[in-house]
Amino acid sequence: MRMRFLVCLVVLALCLPAAVAQDSSKAAPPAPTTNRIELPPPSLSGGMSLTEALATRRSVRAFSPTPLSKAELSQILWAAQGITDKQGHRTAPSASAQYYVHVYAASAEGLFEYIPSGHQLQKLSGEDLRSKFSAQPSVNHAPTVLVIAGEYERAISRSGPERGPRVVLLEAGHIAENVLLQAVALGFGAVPVGGIEPKDVQKAAALPSQYSVIYLIPVGHPK
Length: 223
Ligand SMILES: Cc1cc2nc3c(=O)[nH]c(=O)nc-3n(C[C@H](O)[C@H](O)[C@H](O)COP(=O)(O)O)c2cc1C
Fold this sequence. Notes:
Layout: H1 2-26, E1 36-38, H2 50-56, H3 70-81, E2 101-107, E3 110-115, E4 120-125, H4 130-133, H5 137-141, E5 144-150, H6 152-185, E6 189-190, H7 198-205, E7 212-220
Antiparallel strand pairs: 1-4, 2-3, 2-5, 3-4, 5-7, 6-7
Helix pairs in contact: 2-6, 3-6
Bound molecules: flavin mononucleotide.
């Protein structure tokens, strides 16, 4: 009995470092902490009713060049993934609260990652990348294009090859709908763009290899 216990301990000691190494290789790299930009706090009341937003949402593909203000971008990003309680849960649901999806905002000013904890932006590039993402006019003309990317490998390692990618895509869909409805409520237009080459967008944005691009959402004042 004692011998069997010892053998188990040895096997565990041998396997554990490999398991940890495998897990960490699937985890996203930690976001850098320099170049952080504070966003103004989102408004938590007022605006159009949810029913009105649902009744009036329509895909908008033509935009005026007026950029979104920082407060407007803050509101859109909060709708996407803002933290709404002390446990860190967010506006959009996520399988087992794993939060596999990352949201970026591309504009004439560059590329920024939304950091839900702290409601901040992380500046990743000063280059205007919008025209590199897609030839679709909505992507080229919107003042802000959100990029929605997910961590398939992390989800697969937790939930398996069938459920893993599915929960990532479902989370991205929840986030996208939140953005579309918040855009309507603010008087903006937006369109979910899935007709993209994910690898091309990932390369243009220089996203980590673990992050697969799922959706683009051009957002702006309707023309
Ligand atoms: C998964 C998905 C992918 C889409 N891809 C594109 C796209 O690549 N380009 C585009 O202009 N619209 C795209 N759309 C928007 C649809 O064309 C639009 O939702 C549909 O025509 C219904 O119109 P509505 O959004 O105004 O209700 C996409 C929508 C979904 C749900």
